[in-house]
Amino acid sequence: MSTLTAKPTPNVVLHGLGVFLRARETSILLALLLVIAVTTIKNPNFLFSSDGFRDLLLTPSILILVAVGQAIVIVTRSVDLSVGSTLGLTAYLTGRLFLDIPGIPIILVVLAGIVFGALLGVVNGALVAFAKVPALVITLGTLYAYRGLNVLWAGSDRINASDMPKNFLALGTTEYFSIPLLTIIALIVLIAAGWYMRNTRGGREFYAIGSEPAAAELYGLKVTKRILVAFVACGALTGLAGVLYAARYGTINSQAGSGLELDAVAAAVIGGVAIFGGSGTVWGAAIGAVLLLTINRALPILGVQDFWQRAVVGALIIGAIVLDRLLALRQTRKLLESRDDSNE
Amino acid sequence: MSISPGITGPAALELRDVAKSFGAVVALKSASLTVQMNSIHALVGENGAGKSTLVKIIAGLYQRDAGDFLLRGESVNFKSTADSKASGIAVIYQEPTLFPDLSVTENIFMGRQPTNRFGRIDRKAMRAEVEDLFDRLAVRIDPDRPAEGLSIADQQIIEIAKAISLDARVLIMDEPTAALSGVEVDRLFAVARSLRDEGRALVFISHRFDEVFALCDMITVMRDGEYISTDSIESTTVAEIVHRMVGRDVTELFPKTIVPIGDVVLDVAGMTMPGQFHDINFTVRSGEIVGLAGLVGAGRSEVARAIFGIDGYERGSVTVDGQRVPPRNPVGAMGLGLALVPEDRRKQGLVVDSTVGRNTTMSIQRSLIKLGLLTSAAENAAARTWASRLEVKTNALDTVVGTLSGGNQQKVVLAKWLATNPRVLIIDEPTRGIDVGTKAEVHRLLSELAGQGLAILMISSELPEVLGMADRVLVMREGRITAEITRADATSETVMYAATHASETHS
Amino acid sequence: MSNTVTATPDRVYRDYGQPLWRRLLVTRESAIIALLLLVIVVALLSVRNFDNPITITYLLLDVAPILLIALPMTLIIITGEIDLSVASVVGLSSVLLGTLHQAGLPIAVAGIIAIIAGALGGALNGFLVTVVGLPSLAVTIGTLALYRGLAVGLLGTTAVTDFNEFWTTLAKSKIPGTPIPSITIPFLILLAIFAVVLHFTPFGRGVFAIGLSSEAATFSGINVNRTKFILFVVAGAVSAFAGIYYTLRFGSARGDNATGLELQVIAAVLLGGVSIFGGRGALHGVVAGVLLIGVLGSALRLANVTSDVINIITGVLLVLSVVSTSFLVWLHKQRSKPRRTPRVDSGTPPA
Fold first, then answer.
1. Looking at this predicted complex, what is its ipTM?
2. Does any CB of chain A come closer than 8 Å to the CB of residue B110?
3. Has domain B13-98+150-247 been given CATH number 3.20.20.220?
4. B149-197: per-residue pLDDT in tens?
5. How many folded domains does chain C comprise?
6. How far apart are CA C311 and CA B442, in angstroms?
7. How far is the C-alpha of B287 from the C-alpha of B276, rounded, in Å?
8. Dmax of chain C from CA atoms?
9. Is B350's CB within 8 Å of C8's CB?
10. B329 and chain C: CB distance < 8 Å anywhere?
11. Pairing with B25, which of A260, B47, B386, C289 sits 20 to 30 Å away (CA)?
């Protein structure tokens, strides 16, 4: 019958602790700490040198932004494979703006990048939400189209670090209290996104749509609008990531961001975002991003040639989704059993 | 029509002479229903009487073709389900659609969560309201648990909680107890009574007369899309109600020819699947039509699927002509001569987006191969034979079956399975959603087939059909066979009784 | 309604509801073939050197891997699944060919081992989808990374370029007297096999049924899991074969060979009229789709248009073709419903 037994309310603290410990985010956080620990033992510079600590935080910052955007889209039961191309385009836009409009304020460039990314996201979102075409195919098409635009625009030119204003490039290496600025930006975005997803009606509706689209229609939720917003958000975040990419690396060619979509989806999946939507958090995606890139950097130190990075990513993705499936099956069985028990 | 005295004021819900058709199928001819506030009103009728259609009109899913629809005395015209919800109507379906990944609380409040400034969802307030709701309903469900894995009973409670939080004044419960255990039914009834006492109006649709008579104040009978009667519960009896539901002279419609009955073909022994059915034992002989009756949720379709191999079972055995049918192996079952016309025609019986030709030959493809190839010509030739034998009404063999009428679709399904030359035909709800004319054709066909030596197991929720066609009637209730009644002894009352009461010989 | 129990009147059924010309011409495949012919004509007229036989040779040499892999990919998409790992299998088989050959094995043996490896890769995909029950999108994103990662890991940044000249020449050779490359022969053989299986066998009928309604397919006795598993294995094997050709044609085995090829294959298949929702499609449309992309690319390159524009066009074509499918599906649904049918109806009119 009911799933509460006749006991008094369980200890809230213990209950909360239990939830925390069993959360997916916690396990990958632990995995991350484990990887860092093991690698640092092998080479203390990994963590304890100033460069090491900085790189640990800096490298994933850009992927965190893209992974957060991707997570939002995946939660609604879609996917955005065009993020790599979007990042390339906005990174190039950034460079071009600085080159063609000398003295342009940095903040304007940042805004331009975000808006441009959002526009690219609108194209995806409109086609998915209105034409009801599977996101996989649409974003496959825009992956091509956007990359093509990028190459067309850039030609064989490359934007060099020397072309960019010094104070902009400085953003890529500035630190506050030993934390890189880019990481701080990523954290702020993460916290904002996390708050939105958890605490607003809009955020909860993303989960509802991904969990059961039929119920979402029945409840009268504005599904089309929400899906559009999800893609716009993903585009905007990727646009921001593109600007930060330009700040970090300085050199931008037309292949920037190539393959990033795979890392973003991997980060989200590893972080507990179910590929069919409805569950997982942007926090998990962010930790997944950090874990992924940290493993990549740790492999050479641990004696594994970095050529095997890709294979590790692939194995992690498969491992994550198989684990999710097994856990889901087990949970369903347990819930059914407890229901049968309390019935007879 | 007698209405209980003491209830004054405009009725909470009133429908008068409502009509509704879908193409050639007339679902409602002249349906009426008047529900007062502070009452629990039962709506009964067989399958095909039009109850579901009426409910969907009330819910705003369909629009009536004719007739009046009044809510608290005012005429209404719902264009969508949102309209009816906004007007205070809530429908609790047998299988609620919830968000499995989200918590109970979120399911109740999705789309209208309480927020404070900044748009932040006030979880404390939300949870408190849910706890309050559950207190009022006197139920205990953990508001924080995910909706996934909740029993149907709990899911219905959540739907009811949602309805109350939306302050629904009219709640319609469509066959709510079909999947519920005794304890859960008691809880649901307590909830229903408290809702009634608060001044709401409840409509209770059910086949289970013991429940109807235990819970409801008033009872309206429908038959063949028409309003028949409304009475207060105290002033009538089950026998009278059943009589009005069935109404016609049963023997007229079904051309039952007496056919010599041969040896046992299908033998099911001790078949058990925990949670679905328990210790199922029966036989079907050549030339016999065995009816399998029972209420929705009794487990009949599960038994059929298990025999055919779509689902598995834990204990027991199935044999055809003495040969063991391997479990979980539809191809093996087909090879031994089993055929299953499933319950859900559009999702299981047919590939609706495919053609008549393809669907008709889907299960005999291997036998049409010539020189290693399967050609459309061969398919069409076979399809032509079988479609014409069953008089499927269509111009061309490449017509998409989804465009055919329900009756013709069923004929295609039958053609498909008859083409496999089966020994045993299991048919689940043979005439559901089919017009009267085609119904008669299907019945005639089944009789013919029995005459040719086929062993037929017919699952049906339509009493007249069971009583008219079957040589023997097996009745199931909650996963067990509670009675085996011969044709001579089978009446609406005996079958209904067995369907609603546990067998005395069982624990 | 007939009341006689005996012989039924002969009901005449036409085979087809529409005349032959409509059935042949008003299809997605015809549209693509028409578009292909149009593009060829325009190219012949306006692009210099397009009519040079060498153009055909290089066009076919270039699209051969896509042509090959598009065959099993078509069947997979018709069943409603997808395989994003095919290009990674190409890379992996390329690397295996290279390393095994370098270790002394003859090409033929190394090639067979590579094909078996590809089949095993497909088997893993099939296992995860049918037995574990995971969505093919997620699985093949994972194996895309895994197999590519194995390929890159095995060779690192090096490449194996020392191949037996006999084989490399064979890969680039032409059918004597024509500009058509020899690789077309194995392709045509495979095309014939796939076409026969898809359109003339119960297995092929099953593929379509699964794509339209896998539940109904199960109830009709079709083994859905087995069918899907076989398709993934075949995709792996064919991809590996394409990888062998690719390697020998360029004479170079590298871990990153054919990166991104899966997108070109899927784009071509969808362009060729196969519905992403499953259940519909035909191989002649797919071949036309591949050739269309190939011809466009070739013509534009000759016209000195850069390859990025070609990519943009591919992307836009892909989006357009899928949006138009969606539109046609929507149109069809509107037309086949009589006006007063309820909006929400997943089952028959209610009982």
1. 0.85
2. yes
3. no
4. 788 888 988 999 999 888 899 999 988 886 677 778 888 899 999 999 9
5. 1
6. 58
7. 29
8. 81
9. no
10. no
11. B386
